[in-house]
Amino acid sequence: MTPRLFWACLKQAIRRDLQFRSQTAINAFSSVGDLILGVVPVLILTDAGGTTWSGPLAVAVVGLFGISTGLMDCFVRPNLAKMHSYVRQGDLDLILIRPVNAQLFSGLRWMEPAELGRVLSGAAMVAVGLHLADARPDAALAVQAVAWAVIGFAGFSLLWANLAYSAFWFESAEPVNDIAAQVREAGKYPISYFTGTARLILITLAPAGLVAAVPVETLTGTATSLLLAIPALAAGLVLTKLHWHLASRRYSSASS
Predict the structure, then answer these.
(1) Are residues 36 and 62 in contact, defined by beta-carbon separation less than 8 angstroms?
(2) How far is CA 167 from the centre of its chain?
(3) Using an 8 Å Cβ cutoff, are 125 and 66 in contact?
(4) 234 near 249, Cβ under 8 Å?
(5) 121-157 pLDDT, tens digit each
(6) Which sequence spans correspond to the domains of the chain?
(7) How far is CA 110 from CA 33, 73, 75, 154, 215, in A?
(8) CA torsion angle for 122, 124, 130, 131 (degrees, to 10)?
(9) What is the separation of C-alpha 51 from the centre of its chain, rounded to a whole number of angstroms?
(10) How far apart (Å, rounded) are the C-alpha atoms in residues 236 and 229?
(11) Where is 184: in which H helix or E strand?
């Protein structure tokens, strides 16, 4: 998808939201409210003890989680949630006949700008949390934290995409979107709240822990090397591309 086409899709999404202003406002306030209420269980676990995390840092994790999921729910989730209907109802025909990269277009065509309200509230929570925790990261740590957040965002989006592609292989794959959303919720908790296999999964196969917890740890001075993460993300991109190629070959168009 070219930048021009992406911008055209974004403008169309904004115009669509402006046609239903009340519903858009309700969706925006609802997403912000969900984020704020999401702090409560995190703070309860923090107060329960057993970890070295403070309440303010936990708030920063939830805030960064809100930024990442707000962007994901605006640009990624709406498209992957439609993958099931694309395949089962033959709507993928309308994408395949276009002179664009079908995989990118099917993954970025639909957008929900109202979800971006969570990005602003999340940024405010990160600022307040770091201030209360008296954390003053330098520029190098900030860049490394952003890199981890981007890797976590991209990695989990790729995981979600591969789950959505299961629509090509199975009769009913719609529930995988609910599964992905539930797994993602683990990302709003500091990674030290998990132990053993759960922690390993959340930083590798289902990298919800990289979305917010690891970046905040980096901001506090607990640096983690990016040497393995970047090649792993590149491998994920290649495997996702291969999965699309193999899965789309099984697609039977509506006209066939």
Answers:
(1) no
(2) 20
(3) yes
(4) no
(5) 888 889 888 888 888 888 889 999 999 999 999 999 9
(6) 26-248
(7) 23, 10, 7, 18, 28
(8) -170
(9) 26
(10) 10
(11) helix 176-184
